[in-house]
Protein 1
Amino acid sequence: MQIAMTAAADPGTSADLSDEDIVARVRAGDASLFELIMRRHNQRLYRAARSILRDEAEIEGVLQETYVRAFTHLDQFLGRAQFSTWLTRIAVHEALARRKRRRRVTDLEEIVDKVASPEAGPEDQAFQTELRRIFEVSIDLVPDAYRTVFVLRDIEGLSTAETAASLSIPEETVKTRLHRARRQLRRQLERALGGTVQDVFAFGNERCDRVVAAVLQRVGAR
């Protein structure tokens, strides 16, 4: 089904729509609006997948598969949870399935994007980059189950209930794992916590555009 990119390309007419409104309009045939869903949730899904996998190409594959699966199964979204939670659950399950299929432990990757404030001087930029590197590497050292909960709760800002729904675990388990993750991270991160926490595992610009374009092509909306 080929549908011209119209509404999604005009943020002024669609940016205020809720996820549920967009889903309803996509179901009604305005497939182009699905682009807004992707750009709205790329960051969260990337961080969720990144907490489980460490291969950047495979993580992008998770995002593409998540969006394609969501697009082709929108009729299965019943509104019992927020659409973002439903989407995150799909991404988590896809990432876990890929990790299980690999059946091997990957080496720790230290991927540092040089993203710093353009107003900052060279010393400030170096300091911000080092803080971010310490934070990302420290998170990677946390056991898998705790790390995913930490990323969803403390970095993405999901509630306990949303995290539990995304991971299909009890809320008490979320609380326990989060407490243990924070305890393990406390020493390494006590100097790094602050504004840096919102910058880790950034997903945007070219990578965001690449995932959006690939998904739109796969679902026939471009």
Protein 2
Amino acid sequence: MTRTYTAKIEIRRWKAHTCVGCGCQYAYLMCRKLAYGGSTPERATEKVQAAAERTMAHDIDRQPCPTCGLFQPDMIACRRRSLHWWLLLAALLAVGLITGLYLGDVMQAGRALLAGMAQVSGIALLGFLVDLHNPNRDLEANRRMAEQEVAAQRVRVLRPGMPLAPGIEPPAMRPHGLLASAAAVLALLALALPELVRQQSAWPLNANWHPPVAGPGDEIYLYLPDSIASVKGYWTGTSKVTAQVASRPKAGDQVIPEPPPGEFAIESSTRYADWGLSIDNVKPSERSTRQPLWVRLKLPSGGEYAGKILVCKIVLTVRYPVIHNDDRFETSVSDFQHEANLDLAAPLAGRMYQRWWWGGFAGGELLLIVSILARLSGAAALRRMANPAEILEEQAAE
């Protein structure tokens, strides 16, 4: 086993800023503790010293000017940048979560879009509030805080500034903020677009089907309300689906299937799994794993079914392994029947809806990321407005 050596360092140096408002030059005591590992003591020491140099060069503490009370632009930008990076991480995690729930059929298409809109609204609002926060709103309170730090010898005034505080503050980065807000609004519109297209095209929704929009020629699948408990969740099945065209009900009426000979067969399929003659390495938690049953339909492409309601009768024969008390498994066979209504739209409407859905979802999430990147760019521009900071050669006393 390779041994790892750890080197530690404690930084206590004075970092000086020149105020952009009054010209005061002041320094605050920057304290940091760092620890890095390496394959040798020398390598660990090199890494921790390099990290110390980076820390002193780039880290900034929030200390207002003792003369005018102004927080410097780079101090404000550093905090904003950190918070916006956290928002970007939260946005990416939310995208992954919503996508996973949708692809896993845990969340319906419409609810996934609503979740995306809620995510965009929340993160865009937080980003706006981060940029809206102004620590220079009360310069006099900032100046009193700086005086306390001077009295505690954690801040030094190297060169006093103007006797009178000018009362200015770093200007807001309006171009970046406007771009970020515009991108967030466009993200919401993109996420709403698939539903707007569906309503404009008068495509009906089928709440329990995936995808929820279907027309002649589309493929669509349905989870049955039944489930089975089997070894490792294995099951395989054969399906048979017949359908009848139903009369479209008026408000409050029930769907009534038309009498035969309107019944016809629909091409269908379901899960196929082969577990062989034995199942090895079965954990206790896998002895009886519950799995939902599903069936996939390939709808007939005839245009005569467009706009019709189909009453689908589903017969599913399922084979699955179960373990008995002697730890041997045998194959059980069960039949399941289910009836479900399917309201059809125009031919291939389901395929078109899926394209609109993915385009709207991906476009909305990309625009949200553009919005966050615009705010990060604004923070970087704000930081460049500050006067350069410098590290004083004098070591701080312990």
Protein 3
Amino acid sequence: MKWKKVGLIFDPAMLSSRQLTCSLMPIVELVDEAHDIARVYFSPRDLSGRSQLDYFEIDLKNPSKILKTSERPLFQHGILGAFDDSGVTPGSFAMIGNRKMYYYTGWNLGQTVPFNNSIGVAEFDSKTGVFKRLGDGPIMTRTLHEPYSCASPFVMVDSQKYRMWYASMDQWKKQGEEALPVYNIKYAESNDGIHWSRNGHVVLNYEAEGEYAFGRPFVRKEKNVYQMWYSVRGAHYKIGYAESADGLRWKRMDHLAGIGASDSGWDSEMIEYPFILDHKQKKYMFYNGNGYGRSGIGLAILIE
């Protein structure tokens, strides 16, 4: 694969009037297929550092022009003491029947370590135009055998079941005076999209020297081959790629990812959190650059 970068399409400086910063982890859907209009959901932060869910819309034929932005958050942090009271960041959307569900990462701030993550779900309310929690608790959190954290869910409806690939923390590792989160990608299944079973099965693990973390995966299925794009972190995040015949056993093929950091500019230090949109025989990749979303959201188009 080879991706041609279109460039930065959303600068979070646009959010300053709402006292927001950053634009983390894009999720993209077509809202007007005939006119090539895409809605890009993302997570900005308020002045307290709490992440929420917003969106902007673009014409894929002219992606550098923002057509519309949300005037209010579609989803915000949870109530005091809940697993997501310090912020919410995007994972993915999936349908349960005719219900549009939003799977997300909930954030708690810690004392001995910087944070703790769990996975939550909310349902889109077409009357209000926002997402509503099914409850104040997570659908996946720390367990006896996964004792640290789980985050970054990507959910797919496949073969009459719900499949999730998610980040699972192995440990907190001391690095000087700081605690470093170490996490790989694991797998879970569900019959209803709400109640999940998992056995600790690792689908992506560290390979290269210095790797210690994986960002949110994106999974699609084409011609009975599962494809995964993800970001892997060493000195900086980079985008990787893997394939699988069953969604359980994956082969890392990072050399085929076809996209890397630029020589200069907004994505010259790192690139991460890819999301792939298929539209009219083209593949579009939306992704973040420097600063884990602080520098904005970019776009690339597959050319071979």
